[in-house]
Amino acid sequence: MDTCAQQPAHAVSLLSLSVGSWRFSVGRTAPIPTDLTRLYDGTAWRWHSSIGLLGYSRAYANLFNRLKADYWLVDLRDGAKVLDAGIGTGALSMALSKFLPKAHELHGVDISPRMLARARDNLRQRRHPGITTHLRYGDVNDLAYRDQEFDMAMCAHLLEHCQSPLRTLGEMARVLRVGAPLLTVTTRSNRTASLHSLRWRYRPVESQQLVDWMHQAGLHDVRRYALGAGFSLPGRLSEAYIARKAETCAELPVATI
Q: Which residues contact 24 (CB under 8 A, 6 or more apart)?
């Protein structure tokens, strides 16, 4: 789910058909913030059950199980603070909560009020006394948090909607303490994703481009994880990347609005 405030008016998804010497193309422009809010508000109450049926809830749980085995979550002790940028209905946070200590803080940001309302309901059903949840409407490019405030930051299917994914990653890295992990789940660039992107108006992120952005945002030790088996929908559509915040962050370019 997306919370990016600025969007350019250019095509983000395109299908082409060639017939003899003729070439036909169909595309959709990138949505402005009000379009995104309307788009995701309209589907908020069926979104969570839909992604569960498509296998994403299971894929997220399996992902965190592998991340724990690879020691990415080892520093998340009691009192840990986690940021979920573009929290949507809370599916990623709910999967992570099973692998966190009993006492931790979860902060979620989103641009869709109805998604936030659904996330609040979902997290309330799963929460235990040690978890403190803070959800707020906001823009991930201007997070209302201090530098180095979080022990982990994460997002799922957020960067595809952003005008400047580098700027978004940089802002997430800013609020992350040195050495802490940043996890992003993104849509793979392939034919299946191209068809899907026509409906949801996003741009799939090329793998090498994402790795470059993460390095420029001051992250290092970037690792890629498949999201489920290759024949599953999560495996075909999405993949995950995780890295740690370096001691010094590169200066980020100013995004053109």
A: 16, 17, 18
